[in-house]
Structure formats: structure tokens, C-alpha cells
Amino acid sequence: MEFIEKYSLLIAVIIIWEMIWKGVALWRAGRNNQRYWFVALLVINTIGILEIVYLKFFQKKPSHSHKS
Q: Average pLDDT of 46-61?
């Protein structure tokens, strides 16, 4: 309990950081129909590391099919 009281601000910042990255990554995985990534991102907590790796390297790239 003393640890939580001493580091409450740091814990709050980490929770907010994780929620932001997880939200963006889950939204992208869901939109891209990447079910396995969605489940992995939902279940595994890595303080945003897995989410950043997914967003940088594994999400499907958007197809830009604009007719000019």
C-alpha cells in the first residue's frame, strides 16, 4: 500500500499511456479485421510496447485508391 501511495502519480501516467496506445491499436486491428492481433492486444498488457510494435510494423497499410 505504501508503494501505491508513493508512486500514485507515476502509476496514473502509466495507466493513461497504456489506455491511449491500447485504444488506438485495438481500433486499428478491429478496422483491419486482424482478429488475432485484436485479441492479443486486448489480453496482453505491456505498457504500450506491443501496441506500438503492432502500429508500426504489423497493421495493414491503408490502400489509397483515389481516382485522379
A: 92
